[in-house]
């Protein structure tokens, strides 16, 4: 009997089946700027209508949150997480997401599972006016065990050069607004899984995996609304490293983000993790978002307007003079 690619563990037919399952849905994310269809060697996206455009890009994955999804056979939210982790980063600079590409690796491809993951990306792209224009599915027996998947993505956005948000306009007296997270998002799951090893245990009346797998919140529509109505001086996406590591990335020298810990609305699941794991509060703030998915820095005169535009946004601090770029008080 002669050797074949399938005998080595790679089933090309399953790959073709995956493309068939996602092709029409992916096409629904396309607009007139997308110049070719899924299946080409490269993806083409035409840029028009900008005076001095700057491309902003970001790449990321879902991390070990995937383990929760795979062990509980819940795949629909993971694609949303993958898109959100990439898109939320570029939104911090005022960029509109243009297009997204994904990378899916596995030990043995299952077309139904792969399609379910990609359909999450499709949903997220649609909600954020972004085109899913390409991707790669890699079946790698020997590298991954059957049933294992890894997911990563790459997002490109655009912003006018004179509208780039980079924190340089932040000044003393500016206010820091919190945009709530939907939960852990996609960070800190190695610790989460250590403290909550049983994904089926009950938490607040349902299996805890339902809470853990709530998708990463997407912030483009909220930020777009703010940018259309007020001047935004700085935006920080609160991912791995929490407030402690991410807020300082946008604070100019000589200034400090003074954040009132008491004002932060910490989700119950994070309080339960802290209590059960006997975790120090500063360790929590340096690992998880603690309920704050993004921080937005604005002039004090815009605070009431922000609250009207985004009802669940709330004040957590202000910019003061100081050598420490962040103070939790």
Automatic annotation (TrEMBL):
Localization in the cell: Cytoplasm
EC number of the protein: 6.3.3.1
Highest rank taxon of the organism: Bacteria
CDD domains (alphabetical): PurM (cd02196)
Pathway assignment: Purine metabolism; IMP biosynthesis via de novo pathway; 5-amino-1-(5-phospho-D-ribosyl)imidazole from N(2)-formyl-N(1)-(5-phospho-D-ribosyl)glycinamide: step 2/2
Any one Pfam family match given in the protein's UniProt record, by short name: AIRS_C
Residue span(s) of domain PurM-like C-terminal: 171-324
Gene Ontology CC annotations of this record: cytosol
Ranges where the PurM-like N-terminal domain occurs: 54-159
One of the GO biological process terms: adenine biosynthetic process
Catalytic reactions of this protein: 2-formamido-N(1)-(5-O-phospho-beta-D-ribosyl)acetamidine + ATP = 5-amino-1-(5-phospho-beta-D-ribosyl)imidazole + ADP + phosphate + H(+)
Signal peptide: none
UniProt entry tagged with the keyword Cytoplasm: yes
Xref: SUPFAM superfamilies: PurM C-terminal domain-like, PurM N-terminal domain-like
Family per record: Belongs to the AIR synthase family.
Name of the protein: Phosphoribosylformylglycinamidine cyclo-ligase
């Amino acid at each position: 009997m002669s050797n074949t690619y399938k005998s080595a563990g790679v089933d090309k037919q399953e790959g073709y089946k995956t493309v068939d399952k996602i092709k029409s849905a992916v096409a629904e994310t396309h607009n007139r700027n997308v110049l070719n269809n899924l299946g080409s060697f490269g993806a083409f996206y035409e840029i028009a209508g900008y005076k001095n455009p700057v491309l902003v890009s970001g790449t990321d994955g879902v991390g070990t949150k995937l383990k929760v999804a795979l062990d509980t056979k819940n795949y629909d939210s993971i694609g949303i997480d993958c898109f959100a982790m990439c898109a939320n980063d570029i939104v911090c600079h005022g960029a509109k997401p243009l297009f997204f590409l994904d990378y899916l690796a596995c030990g043995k491809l299952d077309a139904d599972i792969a399609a379910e993951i990609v359909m999450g990306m499709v949903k997220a792209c649609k909600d954020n006016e972004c085109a899913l224009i390409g991707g790669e599915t890699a079946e790698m027996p020997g590298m991954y065990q059957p049933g294992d998947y890894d997911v990563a993505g790459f997002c490109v956005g655009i912003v006018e050069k004179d509208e780039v948000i980079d924190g340089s306009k932040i000044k003393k007296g500016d206010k820091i607004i919190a945009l709530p997270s939907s939960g852990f998002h996609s960070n800190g799951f190695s610790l989460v899984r250590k403290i909550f090893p049983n994904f089926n245990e009950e938490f607040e009346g349902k299996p805890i995996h339902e809470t853990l797998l709530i998708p990463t919140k997407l912030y483009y529509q909220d930020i777009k609304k703010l940018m259309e109505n007020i001047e935004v001086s700085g935006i920080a996406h609160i991912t791995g490293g929490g407030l402690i590591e991410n807020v300082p990335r946008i604070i100019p020298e000589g200034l400090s983000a003074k954040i009132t810990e008491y004002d932060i609305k910490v989700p119950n699941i994070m309080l339960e993790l802290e209590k059960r794991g006997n975790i120090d509060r500063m360790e929590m703030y340096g690992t998880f978002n603690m309920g704050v998915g993004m921080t937005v820095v604005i002039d004090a005169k815009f605070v009431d307007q922000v609250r009207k535009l985004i009802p669940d946004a709330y004040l957590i601090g202000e910019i003061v003079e100081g050598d420490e770029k962040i103070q939790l008080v």
